Amino acid sequence: MKKKLTLKNISIFLVFLFLVIQSIRIDKTTEPVNSSTDFIALTSANAEVVNTLKIACYDCHSNQPTYPWYTNIAPVSWWIKHHINEGSHHLNFSIWGTYKDKRKHHKLEECIEMVEEGEMPMSSYTLMHGEAKLTDAQKLQLVGFLKLKNAMPQPEEEQH
Ligand code: HEC
Question: Which of 44, 45, 48 shows the shortest CA–CA distance to 138?
Answer without folding.
Answer: 48
